[in-house]
Amino acid sequence: MDQAQPRVEVMRCSRCAKCVETITSSRAADGERRVSNDDASASGMVRFGHNLYYCDRCARMVGYK
């Protein structure tokens, strides 16, 4: 049984460069580890692409939230 080990993912806002760390332990269907949209929003970030994030403040400024 291959159990996923937790790891720390760093999310950086694409606009203001604010950094947030989150712990990820789940795997996607293809075996890749990704930060879920729920993890991102719980950390105050908005995902708008593959490994692309805005913080809540910048997301409101550009219209993503």
Automatic annotation (TrEMBL):
Domain of life: Eukaryota
Protein's organism: Hyaloscypha variabilis (strain UAMH 11265 / GT02V1 / F) (Meliniomyces variabilis)
Official protein name in the record: Uncharacterized protein
